[in-house]
Specification:
Blueprint (H helix, E strand, L loop, with lengths): L1 E3 L5 H12 L8 E5 L3 H10 L6 E5 L6 H11 L4 E5 L3 E3 L3 H7 L6 E12 L27 E4 L6 E5 H7 L22 H12 L4 E14 L6 H22 L1 H4 L1 H23 L3 H36 L1
Helix pairs in contact: 5-6, 6-7, 7-10, 9-10
């Protein structure tokens, strides 16, 4: 399944669709779900008119990535539903690796590794790998090889189709594009919330990560800027507040605690050490990690406060 909302990514979208069709393990069908964009819907249907593998569908739910994903999940016929970002391409064995993770019936989802493709040709010297999640890629601190994880990351993920029946699908109140217009969320978190709800409903459920399932994700020049890292960090904090309000802080922040307490401090120390050794970029990386962590925490605090206000009002 590939969800799309804008024609500005047309070349990347076409490449994503082509890579999905060219998998070594042929998909039963490729679902392209268009999020409330009639012009893009018509253009895609014209491109794939008569195609027996590719189905182009309109999002029949609320505007946003969660609604589009739920539309596709409801239309899917296969036992495993794999998700690919509209500005990414999958390696030929991507789908085969994901599907191979479902031999155990308790596995509800399998995710893979997302490598950044920098529009400028190379990673900015100041950009810390610990914050690659900002632009949708796998980040430093994630497992290496194959491992059990709390949740998969939505741009390179798959779910057993029966998992949606367990938890009722992706939450449409959070995640990318939720709400539409100026109020639309720039954060994520919808796949995290879904994975946690599945595990709360079925304590034996497991999610796996396999870094052999590789996709290549475009990082535009705008996303290479420090300003974008700050904006996404703020949005992520707000999203974490929404997620914890739904599933509880114990489950909602289980992975983040280790990331904040171990991965980020180690990254700051490494950056400072590089700076002492005469590598100026190390100071930039250390500063970006510190700024990103503080901004995310501030967004989380503001999100919690905003969600608490209606409750306080009812009490008064």
């Amino acid at each position: 399944m590939i969800c799309v909302y804008t024609e500005l990514r047309w070349p990347q979208l076409c490449a994503a669709i082509d890579s999905a069709v060219a998998q070594s393990l042929a998909p039963s069908d490729v679902l392209v779900v268009v999020d409330h964009n009639e012009a893009l819907l018509a253009r895609l249907r014209a491109r794939h008119d008569g195609d027996k593998v590719i189905r182009v569908l309109p999002n029949v739910h609320d505007k946003g990535l969660s609604g589009a994903r739920n539309t596709g999940a409801e239309a899917a016929a296969g036992e495993v539903v794999a998700f690919l970002d509209d500005d990414a391409t999958a390696e030929p064995d991507w789908l085969a690796v994901l599907v191979s993770g479902y031999t155990d019936p308790v596995v509800m989802g399998v995710g893979g590794r997302t490598l950044p493709v920098w529009a400028s040709g190379r990673r900015p010297a100041w950009y810390p790998e610990e914050f690659d999640w900002v632009h949708g890629a796998s980040y430093l601190g994630m497992p290496v090889g194959r491992a059990r994880v709390r949740n998969v990351l939505g741009g390179n993920a798959s779910f057993r189709r029966g998992a949606f029946a367990v938890a009722g699908g992706f939450p449409e109140g959070i995640g990318r594009g939720a709400g539409g217009g100026r109020a639309a969320s720039a954060g994520g978190g919808e796949e995290t919330e879904l994975c946690i709800r599945i595990q709360q409903a079925r304590p034996d459920a497991e999610f796996r990560y396999d870094d052999r399932a590789v996709i290549h994700h475009l990082v535009t020049r705008e996303r290479e800027r420090f300003r974008y890292l700050c904006r996404r960090s703020w949005a992520e904090g707000l999203s974490k507040a929404r997620v914890t309000a739904r599933v509880g802080a114990e489950d909602g922040l289980a992975t983040e605690r280790a990331y904040v307490s171990r991965v980020l401090p180690a990254g700051i120390v490494r950056g400072l050490r590089d700076a002492v050794r005469g590598r100026p970029s190390g100071l930039g990386r250390a500063g970006a990690i510190g700024a990103g962590a503080l901004i995310t925490a501030a967004g989380y605090a503001v999100g919690l406060r905003h969600r608490a206000r209606p409750v306080e009002g009812r009490r008064r």
